[in-house]
């Protein structure tokens, strides 16, 4: 009876170590994704790390799969700290939430202002009227 209990405990220990290694690899992949997406959007990934903040079962096709949520902090201008989140199934990024940032700031030059349109200020991006002759829908 003692040999069976020892074997069972050893098996549980091996399973726990395997699960820990698998979650560590998934976390490393999440760090790569967060770093890549922050760089793509001009954000700084603070502390260069992510933390597992939850998981949920999600229907994917006809299967239920485990989706992990990782949280991290980013900085827009180096003086702030904003929360970001990403969700992954396996090694695939399924969702990403980054703080609202101004992705495009129009240049304020006299050439850029069209006649009849007032220059915009702040974070307002001016829209140009569509050229209806070129915008033909089929």
UniProtKB/TrEMBL annotation:
Residues 128-138 have a biased composition (Basic and acidic residues). Residues 110-138 are annotated as: Disordered. It comes from the Bacteria. InterPro entries: DUF3301 (IPR021732). Pfam families: DUF3301. This is DUF3301 domain-containing protein. The lineage of its organism: Bacteria, Pseudomonadati, Pseudomonadota, Gammaproteobacteria, Lysobacterales.
């Amino acid at each position: 009876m003692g040999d069976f209990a020892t074997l069972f405990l050893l098996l549980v220990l091996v399973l726990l170590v395997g699960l820990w290694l698998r979650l560590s690899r998934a976390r490393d992949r999440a760090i790569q994704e967060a770093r890549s997406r922050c760089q793509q959007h001009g954000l700084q990934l603070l502390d260069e790390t992510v933390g597992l903040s939850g998981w949920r079962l999600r229907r994917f096709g006809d299967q239920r799969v485990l989706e992990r949520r990782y949280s991290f902090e980013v900085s827009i201008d180096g003086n702030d700290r904003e929360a970001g989140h990403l969700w992954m199934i396996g090694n695939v990024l399924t969702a990403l939430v980054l703080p609202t940032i101004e992705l495009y700031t129009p240049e304020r030059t006299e050439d850029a202002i069209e006649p009849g349109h007032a220059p915009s200020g702040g974070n307002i991006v001016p829209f140009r009227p569509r050229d209806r002759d070129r915008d033909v829908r089929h």
